[in-house]
Amino acid sequence: MKFKLFASAALAPLAFAGVVHAQDASQPTSVEEIIVTGQPIFRNRTEDVVPTLSYDLEYFQRFEPLTVGDALKRVPSVTFLSDVLESDGVRLRGLDPGYTQILINGERVPGAGVDRSFFVDRIPAELIERIEVVRSSSANRSGDAVAGAINIVLRDALSLEGGYIRLGALNFPDSEYGQWGGTYGAVWGGQAGPGRLLLGANIQDRRNPKNKYSQRFDEPGGTLDNTEVQTDVRDGTDYSFNAAYEVDVAGGNLELSGAFVRTDRFQDEDSLEYADGVETNANLAVVNDNDLDIRTDNLSLRARYERAMFGGETRFKLGYASIDDEQYEFEAESEYLRDAIAFPDEDRFTLDSTSTDIKDEEVSAALEHSRDLASGVELEFGVQWVQKDRDSLVAETPRIRFNVPNAPAPRPPVPAFGPFSPVDGGDVTIEETRIDPYVMVSGENGPLKWEAGLRYETTDTTITDRTVAAADQVTENDYAELLPSFSLRYRLSDSDRVTFSAARTVRRPNFDRLSPTLLEEEFGDSDFVGNPNLEPETSLGFDVGFERRLGRRGVIGVNAFYRDITDLIEETNTGVEGSAGPGTFIYTVDNVGDGTVYGLEFDLSTPLDFIGMESTGVFFNYSWLDSEITDFIGERRFNDQSDYVLNFGFTQDLPTWGAAFGATYRKQGDAFGRVLAEEVSTSYGADLEVFVEKSFGDNIVLRLTGSNLLDASKDEVFDKFGSIDDQISRDYDEYEIETENAGPVYQLVLRVAF
């Protein structure tokens, strides 16, 4: 159905083109200028009043990122808490992905995550024209951007003149499941009828082979209970197609665009657990086989019409965006040390099967108008409407478990799985309607440029949980927030300028915290029940920055930020005894407590032409990140916020030889998270990437890249407790140290322009 819908949308502009007349369009970029750069590429110095960092695709392209997530690793203040070689949930300024707004072409997109976040590794890097990091908020954009926003701008109909093909091979030398993969793509842009058309398609293999090793103790420095040796291989293919058409219609400009991305992935985790840490067959305690099959479809369709009317410019927008996430998980576990006879004689066998199906659709519309009020002053106002419908079904089959009596008797045949039935809180529909009017005034007077706005966001939410009693299945939650914003930019000289922004923003509650389902032993031995009456968290934020132009192409900047977040959503004790009896409780969530987030961001990108090395480019960015929050134990940072992120590197062009090479180095600081009954400390190793390229004439580039050349590792320490009282008194249930590592990935990519 999605393919038919997208094909109809892609062909619609061509049909429409036959009955309209084109006018002059802006000049598109020659495709040869994109694939054969011949000079260092740096971040753009934007003219936006709101502090914005902009990076064209060429800034990332030489290192051949596979996804938008891979590209964002080089951007200031972006961190991830993913597995090694994975870059999925953006943690702008180190905060949870739910605090960052992900936009595609300036519009919101739904994600599969319960925190409303969108995994940026679902978008192939080849689709993008540029990436913008918007550090503050404006009245004409959705206000759920406490940490800021990432705007992924896809190529439009004016992006290219001509086309190119991309052919590549990927090598995973540490993979036991196939060492080679491919990447293939093509993009074309040009005149089509009375307008301009852009078409693009891309297929790329994805593979992430990792090894994990865990040691589990009864407490820190205590007795070693067991070790676990695990392999984790994520193998899949991404498919994407995008189209855009732009044409002048009836005195205005019509833009139609669409993108479809399919992620098809299989995750295979196999582990061996050894008693007392003695890794021999005699001590083999558990063999686990955990497979996860994922298919995720993202579809985005947009229409925008703009024309002069009513004394100004009026814009009409229509949009449809959806994510369809289907997952099937299978886990088989064999135990061997439940009696005196060791491996290979099995004592107990357990089989679990879970199905997850999430469909999230958003239909949006907007009517916006802007007009001049006076010389240098512009008024903009409008109303934006979004209707979200989210269906989530998490179901499992009855657990299959049986003992094998009288070992070494053979295990009986495994019975077939029973029917799937929803887990508690697993069959939920959420309907959310937003109507957000706004007004904004902006102006420019000599060296000063400014913007002030007011946005009023209304949210009506209906939650239907079909796993609870009929009388409690439907709950409603309505709220509204007034969000003022103000930004200014002052030009000190032709090279120097300062920026200031202040804005009130929100973070809406996670979906899984709204359902009134009781989850037994969710936190250690204690239970949890959701709260459908949650209000959003709100934040008052400030950004102050300074930026200087270096020569013709270089730029250096520093920015300080501060966020005062109120009505934090935190776990609280209802005081009601839990299902496990005395000493346990039922916990819920409520709007309690406040927190602050602050930091300093520095970035530099420039050619070294001031010392006669105009073909050498260097880039460096460093972000110091910190925060304060008080929870049930005491003061801590916001959960899993890294204390810094560092990127630096260089590119060296060799014009005489038509060649270039470069490297980039990345290091992310440690992070700590504390929730009820568990604490996690996370640290990452450094990441090194290099590229070497050779151009042939004006239309061919061959590029070799290597990533994760330092065999980066992710190290985690888990402090686990049976209850909240045990956590406070440090009476451990288990203490675990886990290390995960992966090897390098190499790509050889050929681009040919035509």
UniProtKB/TrEMBL annotation:
Residues 1-22 form the signal peptide. It is a multi-pass membrane protein. Residues 57-149 form the TonB-dependent receptor plug domain. It is found in: Cell outer membrane. Transmembrane segments: none annotated. It comes from the Bacteria. SUPFAM superfamilies: Porins (SSF56935). Keywords: Cell outer membrane, Membrane, Receptor, Signal, TonB box, Transmembrane, Transmembrane beta strand, Transport. Residues 262-709 form the TonB-dependent receptor-like beta-barrel domain. Belongs to the TonB-dependent receptor family. PANTHER family: PLUG DOMAIN-CONTAINING PROTEIN (PTHR40980), TONB-DEPENDENT RECEPTOR-LIKE BETA-BARREL DOMAIN-CONTAINING PROTEIN (PTHR40980:SF4). This is TonB-dependent receptor. It comes from Brevundimonas vitisensis. The lineage of its organism: Bacteria, Pseudomonadati, Pseudomonadota, Alphaproteobacteria, Caulobacterales.
